[in-house]
## 1
Amino acid sequence: MLRHFLTLSIIAAVITFSANKSACSQTVSISVETGGVWFSNNEVRIPNEGGTTFDMLEIIGSDASPYLRLYATVSLGERHTVRALIAPLSKSGTGIFNEDIFFEETTFDAGVPIDGTYQFNTYRFTYRYTFYNRNNWKLGAGAAALIRDAKVELIQPDRSDSNTDLGFVPLLHIYAERNLGERVSIVLDGESLAARQGRATDVSLTFNYSFSENWTTRAGYRLLEGGADVDDVYNFSWINFGLLAFQITF
């Protein structure tokens, strides 16, 4: 996690340095988001043709576990915002299936404990243009570039196999904020895109409270949903987050 924090700090510094050259008015924010994450669905079939369909929740479970996300955000004047995100996510467990599982190039025996890990680390850069900011509403839209570092791994005492995927996904971004008072607001913040090969959605609904000009906290719910249906991989997940975040603005 220290490596992620240092990376984010470097990104924030680069963004800030660029902003100083291109904008006369800017703010820089660092946010830490934490809470509990739990899976509602995680269906896997690898390879897509010939593999066995199984529920990864039989291994990793559906109980909540802690998570952490790190953000660096720079507002360039009143209209333009850029944001960098580091979002590691990994969960492991042990389960037993009542049928043999053919996964990647290996058959895992029924009735024998299987250790498994599901990993979906994401690194994201987002740009937003605020096109409406009055009457207690702020509305924006933009685009995001996501790099995913995903892995599904199964292990039995005498065998193991895994599938890894490092790839790029473009996303559309939306933002809506409604001020409910001088210090309180509600925010919808989402990024999503769907295609024939799959889809991806990361959206949150939060209540924000500003203690001062520099300190803000938010609490709410986040949904991470999507997956791929391609020649090599079939995997779709529904992941829930109960979130609490703290933000400092410079």
Note: The chain has one domain: 2-249.
## 2
Amino acid sequence: MNKTELIQSLSEEVVLNKKDVIRLLDALTRTIIRTLRKGDKLQWSGFGTFILSHRRARLGINPATKEKINLKETHVPKFRPSKTLKQLIR
């Protein structure tokens, strides 16, 4: 399912027009990003948790040239599904 299909599905499910659904999804996305940028986690009961994972600096290899390169430390967003979501999918 892509974003257009998601918007269509939500529009039919909650009986809102597509513009309102788009604004809602954009606001949700901005809120998740803003929360992670602050270093906080966003916990959505029954769905899962959005967290920021820290990766330390490390030595990597360029797959094209096999040259060793230094990779800087970075933060990576991650999603951990809730137990409820996992059970519903099974």
Note: The first helix runs from residue 3 to 14.
## 3
Amino acid sequence: MEFIKKHFAILIISLAVMGTGLILGKSYLSKGKPDPKIKVIGKGEETFDSDLIVWNASFSRNDFDLKLAYATLNQDLNMLKLYLKSKGVSDKDIIIEAANIEKQYSNEVDADGKIISTTFNGYSITQNVKVQSKNVNLIERVSREVSELINAGIELDSKAPEYYYTKMADLKLKMIEKATTDARKRAEKIAENGGGSLGNLHQADMGVFQITAENSSEDYEWGGSFNTSARRKTAHITIRLEYDVN
């Protein structure tokens, strides 16, 4: 007992050194041997039909008299609206945008290419019309038949229809679920083949949402692609998961 009292401080120091040595020894033995992890990528794809069509068209009138140009343009616009209604297009689906007015000029140049005079050639007024509808079949057909308006004297500049999908939020959730399930199955198989079992999910990252035309060779874009030219599309997404392995 007397011995312990006299050498108490030394014993405490010795025990501390021994404890530190054990900790450092375990740390050294486990150095370079991190807990095993499995990293996998799951893919989700879904093909769908667009349920919203947007068709843009425009026409112009030119005249030295601005009021006359406007009056002629309004006649064309009324004729176009009557034409669309006769085809079954609803009033609520026709969007008349603001007309654009431009002054037209022509320049006379000399042999050196310098402008020597400018002549005013009148006003050009352009009217843009948009048709936005969920009746995809109807608007698709009408956009192909508008050449009939040429006979009425309206030179319509018709753009190719654009196609959209209004239930994109629900589709994304479905895609994420598919990709996550696919990734987990891959991870389970890898763990099983390695003689272990899948542990807790360590990390999850979602890739960029891509929408391309069905059966196309379109390239994916870094920020995500969104095809609007094809009626039938395929959505793609990837999920990266990292699991612990037991």
Note: The domain at 53-163 is CATH 3.30.70.2970 (Alpha-Beta Plaits).
## 4
Amino acid sequence: MIEKYPKQVKIVYKNFPIPSHKYSDLAAKAALAAQRQGKFWPFQDLLYAHYRDLSDEKIREFAERLKLDMVRFEKDRKDPAIAEKVRADIRDGRKANVRGVPSVFINGRRLRKRSMQGFSEIIEKELQKAKNPSPQK
């Protein structure tokens, strides 16, 4: 979608580790630590591809595969600021009534039809609303 709407669409990623997954909180913190080295999306892709077999060892393996500075990565994973960012994202998710992941919202509206067509439809509707705002009452 970014390619189709480069000036209209901005992606905001929020962490929402699910309590039923033993490593989801650690994975969220690791992804944010990877972000500090410019590798958030590749790291996140690995996490989602291997979510069933995550472990501390697997998370370190991903960091090594992406050639992260491991000393910095381990330090950043334990940074209280990263833990607070995850907690803040969880609070935002609860306010938005997130029940599972991944969840997608476009201008605050939950995307139900998660396909390229579904993305395009809701983005086009939102762009039309921006062009033709309804009169205030």
Note: Residues 35 and 41 are 8 Å apart (CA to CA).
